[in-house]
Design brief:
By secondary structure, the chain is mostly helical. It is about 75% helix and about 5% strand. It has 15 helices and three strands. A three-stranded antiparallel beta sheet has the order 2-1-3. The chain is flat and about 90 Å long.
């Protein structure tokens, strides 16, 4: 007989605590009566409790992101380590979380566990927040009776993954953001500043320098066709994004091309190796069979080239080959990685070797991103100086030449 799950609601409340101080906040519960009972247990004498009203416009609830799951995973690991039961742990985290959407989700998970369902089963009902790898690890912990240890591994894995993801975003976002700002500033100068100078120059009655004529020509072109160019860029971006979501071959080809980029390609390669080894180390050490661990690692690699290579390794290992031999056959992984895996297989400490490789490559990604940022800062400043400075010089060049004539 299927167990019906109760829908959690968010309530806002005002009241007085044990010290007689006025307090207010939000609480997640199934009903208004349960909300009042929960507040009473917390020592709050509620004067007003009402269901949280959704805003008229917009979704209202804040989206749960990967960083939230990372923090919650660490909180669960810490509380389980302190001897708190899993139900108490989830309830305590839910009541103290600042996001209503997170409180609601954790409340639903708590209700599932209270109804006698495994935690992994409850988490699988929220696939947008807890992927298959996360749920598989929790299920392994439940089956082995070592959920506390497994959650500590999950927390470390999520923290390392988020740190690596943050580094990659930093490497790609910083130069892109600066170039966007440069483009906006240049467009504003060409559309609004240069035409003002053009009106002044028209009264000179003399031929303008070639450089100034070129800039004025760019300004006129942008004024005449700027709307069409902007519309074309937006349409192309929309169509590309739509096709990117639909076409697996387009995503795979783009992944392959990204790896060939100078500097950034090396960062992405090392990041994929770090993800692969970190994921495989975590799952293998948690007791997941190597074949299943490789499948999870393939999904977490973050690049189609490495995903296909890992799936090839999985196929070869299933057929009885050693992992290091299969890795060499892909021609994707560096010799150092395959050699360390070979040593791990010979010594029976594959998970330790994978953890060491992951630490090495995570440090290399950190160093490369910091180096790239330090290199790009002066280069970007120079580019901005040339573009904006060139426009200013082009506008003042006729005035300088008039001064020389006088």
């Amino acid at each position: 007989m299927a167990t019906s799950t109760k829908t959690m609601n968010t309530f806002t409340w005002d009241g007085v605590n044990r010290k007689g101080q006025s307090v207010k906040g939000e609480i997640t519960a199934v009903s208004l009566t349960e909300a009042k009972n929960l507040l009473r247990r917390q020592g709050v004498s509620a004067t007003k409790v009402k269901k949280f009203a959704k805003p008229l416009f917009g979704k209202g609830a804040e989206k749960i992101n990967a960083a939230d799951i990372c923090i919650v995973s660490r909180q669960i690991a810490t509380m389980l380590g302190a001897g708190v039961t899993i139900i108490q742990t989830i309830d305590m985290i839910a009541q103290g979380h600042s996001k209503a959407s997170m409180r609601k989700m954790l409340g639903e998970v708590s209700n599932e566990v209270k109804a006698g369902n495994p935690l992994s089963s409850a988490l699988r009902k929220h696939p947008n927040q807890f992927d298959d790898l996360y749920c598989d690890l929790v299920e392994t912990g439940e089956q082995s009776g070592a959920l506390e240890t497994i959650y500590d591994r999950i927390a470390i894995y999520k923290e390392k993954s988020e740190a690596l993801k943050s580094k990659i975003k930093k490497a790609m976002f910083y130069p892109a953001a600066v170039m966007v700002v440069a483009f906006i500033v240049t467009t504003i100068l060409l559309l609004f500043v240069v035409p003002q100078f053009e009106e002044i120059f028209s009264s000179f009655g003399a031929e303008l320098p070639v450089f100034t004529q070129f800039v004025i020509g760019m300004s006129r072109f942008l004024q005449d066709y700027g709307v069409f160019i902007a519309a074309g860029i937006v349409a192309a971006g929309y169509l590309f994004g739509r096709q990117y979501k639909k076409s697996a071959s387009l995503r795979d080809n783009l992944d392959a091309k990204l790896l060939k980029l100078p500097v950034l390609g090396d960062i992405l390669k090392k990041a994929s190796i770090a993800r692969f080894t970190r994921t495989l180390s975590t799952t293998f050490a948690a007791g997941v069979p190597l074949i299943g661990a490789l499948e999870s690692a393939a999904g977490a690699a973050g690049n189609a080239i490495f995903r296909d290579a890992i799936l090839f390794i999985r196929k070869e290992v299933s057929a009885g080959s050693q992992m290091n031999t299969s890795m060499r056959a892909t021609n994707v992984f560096p010799d150092m990685v395959t050699q360390m895996i070979a040593i791990g297989e010979e010594s029976g400490a594959v998970d330790d070797m994978l953890d060491k490789v992951a630490n090495i490559y995570e440090r290399e990604v950190d160093d490369m991103v910091d180096g790239l940022t330090a290199l790009l800062e002066p280069m970007i400043m120079a580019v901005l100086g040339v573009i904006i400075g060139g426009l200013i010089i082009a506008m003042y060049l006729p005035i300088f030449e008039m001064g020389n004539v006088v």
